[in-house]
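[stage:ingest] chain + small molecule (zinc ion)
[stage:ingest] validated
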Amino acid sequence: MKEGIAGKVIYRKDYTTYPWDIKQLDLHFDIGIETTTVRAQMEFSLKQGPGTRQSIVLNGSDLQLLSISLNGQELTEEDYIVEAEKLTIPDAPSSSILKTEVKIHPSQNSALEGVYLSGEFLLTQCEAEGFRKITWFPDRPDVMTTYTVTLEADQSAFPVLLSNGNELDRGELAGGRHWVKWDDPFPKPSYLFALVAGDLALVEDHFTTRSGREVSLRIYVEEENLDRCEHAMESLINAMRWDEERFDLEYDLNVYHIVATNDFNMGAMENKSLNIFNSKYVLARPDTATDVDFQGIEGVIGHEYFHNWTGNRVTCQDWFQLTLKEGLTVFRDEEFSADMQSRAVKRIRDIRDLRSRQYPEDDGPMSHPIRPDHYSAINNFYTATVYQKGATIIRMYHTLLGEDGFQKGMKLYFERHDGQAVTCDDFLKAMADANDVNLDRFGRWYSQSGTPQVKVTDHYDAATLTYTLNLCQHTAPTHDQQEKQALVLPFAFGLLADDGQELPLQLENEAAGKPGARLLIMEEEQQQFTFINISEKPVPSLFRDFSAPVKVIYDYSQQQLAILIAHDTDAFVRWDAAQRMAETAILEQRKNHSENTPMSLDPSLVKAFRGVLSDRQADPALLSEALILPDEDYLAEQMDVVDVDGIHAARCFVKKALANELMELFKQRYAEYNDGQPYQKSAQSMARRSMKNVCLSYLQETEVGESLASAQLSSSDNMTDTLAAIRNLIFMGSPVAETALADFESSWMDDVLVMDKWFIMQAIKPGRETVDRVRKLMDHPAFSIQNPNKVRALIGVFAMLNTTGFHADDGSGYEFHADRVIELDGLNPQIAARMASAFNRWKRYDENRKALMQNQLQRIASVEGLSADVAEIVGNALQ
Ligand code: PHE
Ligand code: ZN
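[stage:predict] done
[stage:export] tokens:
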């Protein structure tokens, strides 16, 4: 990689071990909002053994050093070197005690890394490299040690003082001050350190582990949110039980703390026994949170809990191994949610998410393998690739080895590596050794970026009753990597007869046919499978359950897709066939639109949708997934040069035409599910609401839309139905929409989380006028550019989800957005970099838009003192 504007690049191949062990770290915090003083004492011992000397290298950033001593000797500036966020003490004795004292300034910290202020309380965020903003320390995940932490503060402002592990002791001090001492017996890397200090209220429950350990579960929130913690607590208890049952993993301490904050860069953080959560993933009440929010909470609570084993007990050697903990933990949380809710629906949503976020990432300027080879700012690598594609690769181990084999591998992984900082190779080896298989070739998934395409062709010979399937895989060169190799692809599939029956499969070398699906393994670039005794020309059902993260190219006829939609036994294939059919229909109309030919509706799509709407057997949640048309971004990915307006027009046309054609059915199903039953949290009620609201979103295109949405709004007893109704009113341009928004605003003005939804609804409205509205909303008292949730809701949603607004061909959206990136970079580089990535696909647009976006990228790049975070994103995009 060229250096470009991104500055220093760190390479995976340059990894070296840290020469010292640290036996113990004692921290003392004198807590204050403006200034906090941190005293640290650590015991260094040279790995090589006694006698020799070595320099001690520490990381630190924005620290005001008050004093430093080595083995009781105060050091002066001649005794150490400070450069580029590093402090080096040359020639330290092999056994050394280092003491430091620094000052930090939490209230001035707008990057939300290190110690910072949220509302009236202080908290920390250390992953990946935030600990260096707290004290001088080797801030890298392979340096693990035990911590004791003493927090001292004013008792009335900071009655709650939390850190990792168990509370050891507490006491009072003169002047209304107090202290609490914490001890974490498990050695941990610095990124898992946390503290919280403030006046927080508490919801408490408990869990008894299988072996009888009593664990006290505490969720800390601001007082007014005490009545919104029930679902999070229930999710936590479910997660603890599930991990025992499915993975044989138990919790290992007597306390588990969760703290909710409104100011957080990410979703949540798995600090040992002191998780810190974006309040979005804790707080929920039916009138404030949607079904999607409830499901998100369950997933994220599970995710952070599961990290206790996959991430904390066994952690990463270096940040290149991030997917070791994240891919695996996402896989675990996906499985948890699948076991709690409907597995098929969960799978489809995860697959849709992967294809719409990760595929474009892997095809763009930030393309990287799930285990990257280099980075400039590690924060830029908390990506859909490392997380979601990483989880898919873990899922492939599971597909290849089966549940038993996978669990054997997990067991060996923990036996070998508990308490260690390890690599993705160590995980692969545990899986391979436990199952006595060779997974070397499978390991290519860790080092290769890009989405493989699998071209499938087939031939049926009626005379010999043979059917031949030809698979050819190809991964196109990506921005980061030219050469690609063949990958191991688990290939789950079946063959359907015209009447939808599954045909028995018999490979040419097999004695008899076997009913049902097959799992074959593709390892070569090209492979052929021949089946005999196939009684008729079959419809192939390919990569069932999305058995590998590939793009499947097969020339399905609409007729074949109709058979799959109606009959396939695999929910993913059924859904995917519906998506393909809709995609074909919309892209066809896009073409008509660009050629000024009248658009028309594909009758096979009408027929298929009629079938879906008439299905009274299937889970309504699944049906609703099938009725959601592919989104504009996904459609854009299917074109060589994106036609923003054409895609929008064609999708709107198809949706409206379907709605009018099938209006009676949509109305019927809507009425059926809009049955006036009071709100319930169950999966079943959620499924009914999702079907109801998908029907409503079609009916919005018809003459009954406005009255139905208005009626739903006034009778709604939950946020899911309320939001769906208002969104529909907004999208149909109804005058009622403004009143609805104003009412919503006055009801929820003081509620930060609910107001996020109010901003989202307005930012997402298609059309070029929206940019002005978004600009005005930035002055709204509930908006703050310093708050990541607000930035994501208003600015992020506009740039990433509003295609016609952001891509307005006069460049107004681009210019507005670039201004925001520049403004944010001075405050919070991590969030600024996320926002900057909205320009990543610029090369795929028409000449006009391309030039406009390039201009904005160059304008950002030329800003003086640009953060490494934004510089890396923008630098890659411009390359
Ligand atoms: N490790 C967190 C998770 O996936 C994500 C995170 C990364 C949070 C960096 C904050 C900062 O659960
Ligand atoms: Zn995680």
